[in-house]
Amino acid sequence: MESRSRYNRSCDCYAYLLVKQCMTTLLFNPLSAYWDTRKGSQPVEMSTIEHSHRDPVYKVIWLQSKTGTDIFSASTDGQVLWWDIRKMSEPTERLILDPSKKGNLDNALGAVSLEFETTMPTKFMVGTEQGLVVSCNRKAKTPAEKIVCTYSGHHGPIYALQRNPLFPKNFLTVADWTARIWSEDIKESSIMWTKYHMAHLLDGCWSPVRPSVFFTVKMDGTLDVWDILFKQNDPTLSLKVCDEALYSIRVQDNGRFLGCSSQLGTTTLMEISAGLCTLQKNEKALVSEMFERETKREKILEARHREMRLKERSRSEQSREDEGKEADGEESARGFIIRFVLCVSRDF
């Protein structure tokens, strides 16, 4: 991997998308806004305070729509808001991330990351501060039905959440000290995960061309490249990019160039070697087989854990029943002794 050049830009990778420019500006601002670079440096439209998020907006994504003007945003206030940029006075739709599905904002999970796959236009996922991934269905009839399920496995905020470009049923999460690969079919555990690192992981993404390759960046300034077909316990390549924390990473669409941004706003652009950005022979089939095998293994373990929990619950209930019977027997014996003593006392 060859380092090419550096750019001094703010937080998210060197204006990778227009929405990323908005995101950088809104990082600690509850308002949502958009810019048209043909119309100068000022925002064209901006949301009003009373109808905006209550906490900083951490993620904004463009939606695939007929008009091309729809976006949605996520914030640590526990809300996901949909907007039409032609009229941003108020959101077109609102979802409160309350896991109890009661729509209570006080119980809502703070949103840190979003995932939207254009081939699944009704589905989206939210990574939360509490380490849960919330799977949602936008077209559900009621707010309660929009929250489909949750995936639990991390110990802190999920900074990165992305579906595999070639296998969208499998997705990557980056949080705490690990990166994890999940299957939509398994709710209780990820199917693969990295070892626990000494430094926190702060971002990650899949290679757009190789389904077995993903990238992570850490607080110690290190970039790790993983190829799960080559090895799974350690990264294929680790590169010390800088001395400060790396907060963001993005890969070019053809997988050839990669950019990481640091805590101080310095973006490093690197060229990836041909072996890591060229689809290998039978790679898709091998990755598909690996994901299916690991999913099947986790399903078996999940069924076994469920069975053990049921047995434990049955034992607990049986134990409580036995204790109740013993208590009733002791009470009956005590009552008999008292009656016997009273009878003897009267005879004397």
TrEMBL record:
Record GO terms (molecular function): dynein heavy chain binding; dynein light chain binding
Keywords: Cell projection, Cilium, Cytoplasm, Cytoskeleton, Dynein, Microtubule, Motor protein, Repeat, WD repeat
Disordered: annotated span: 309-331
WD repeats: 50-93
Name of the protein: Dynein, axonemal, intermediate chain 2b
Gene Ontology annotations of biological process type: cilium movement; outer dynein arm assembly
Listed GO CC annotations: microtubule; outer dynein arm
PANTHER family: DYNEIN AXONEMAL INTERMEDIATE CHAIN 2, DYNEIN INTERMEDIATE CHAIN
Compartments where located: Cytoplasm, Cytoskeleton, Cilium axoneme
Record organism: Sinocyclocheilus anshuiensis
Homology family: Belongs to the dynein intermediate chain family.
Entry-linked InterPro entries: Dynein_IC (IPR050687), WD40/YVTN_repeat-like_dom_sf (IPR015943), WD40_repeat_dom_sf (IPR036322), WD40_rpt (IPR001680)
Organism lineage: Eukaryota, Metazoa, Chordata, Craniata, Vertebrata
